[in-house]
Specification:
alpha+beta; 2 domains; 8 helices; Alpha-Beta Plaits; 230 residues; elongated
Length: 230
């Protein structure tokens, strides 16, 4: 315990040897690399929860963390003082996507690495991040089913049984999400269905089914299930 107290005392009296040039290089490096991180996020983003302010936050967060790491240096006393100051800050903005939270941590990591002068590590890290994002974006890795589609079918209610028979025979699997009747006597039915295509089938093949011509009035492909985001 005494050795820790002595170390804290000696570090408290240590004068930082970081020059203005070193600090400028660290912060400018964090700024430049965080712009690249933001660019990777923009090019690989999917879903509907995009925010321009979030992009600015990634860049400013990395810049701020780099300055904090430069100020702290190897001074333990400053590190404890910073922890005490930051403990009063509360962040209450909800993060809708896990991926957005990961990018916040990556922005912090870039700021820490640049603030401590390990620039080559930051460049290698960004290269690996970009590589992983490209693999996930242009491959089906992580998709449980690549041939799963959400469709709507409009047909006469008397032909519902014939419709189900065609679905069973022509496609791999299906599940009815909803049915909605319309018309004076409920003669028209709108069916929302989750349809799994067979291995060699394409979405265009759904419209080409001859059996549907005398049964279905209208077919709409709403979305592929794996592309639906929160």
């Amino acid at each position: 315990m005494d050795s820790i107290i002595k170390e804290l005392g000696s570090n408290a009296n240590t004068i930082s040897s970081v020059t203005l040039v070193d600090a400028s290089v660290g912060m400018l490096s964090a700024l430049f690399l965080s712009f690249i991180l933001a660019f990777i996020y923009l090019k690989t983003h999917t879903g509907y929860s995009y925010s321009r302010n979030y992009i600015f936050s990634l860049i400013l967060l990395s810049l701020t963390i780099s300055l904090i790491m430069i100020i702290i240096g190897s001074n333990i006393a400053r590190a404890f003082a910073l922890v005490g100051a930051m403990s009063i800050v509360r962040f209450r903005n909800p993060i809708k996507e896990t991926r957005d939270l990961v990018y916040i941590f990556m922005s912090i990591a870039i700021g820490m690495v640049c603030g401590t002068g390990f620039y080559s590590f930051a460049i290698l890290f960004l290269f690996l991040v970009g590589l992983v994002e490209i693999i996930f974006k242009y491959s089906f890795f992580g998709n449980l089913q690549k041939n799963n589609y959400i469709l709507s079918f409009s047909l006469h209610s008397d032909k519902f049984d014939d419709f189900i028979l065609v679905i069973k025979n022509k496609f791999k699997n299906y599940s009815i999400i909803s049915k909605e009747f319309s018309g004076i006597n409920n003669e028209t039915i709108l069916i929302i269905i989750n349809l799994t295509l067979k291995k060699n089938q394409l979405p265009e093949d759904i419209h080409k089914q001859e059996e549907f011509k005398n049964i279905v009035n209208k077919i709409d492909i709403l979305s592929s299930e794996e592309n639906i985001e929160n």
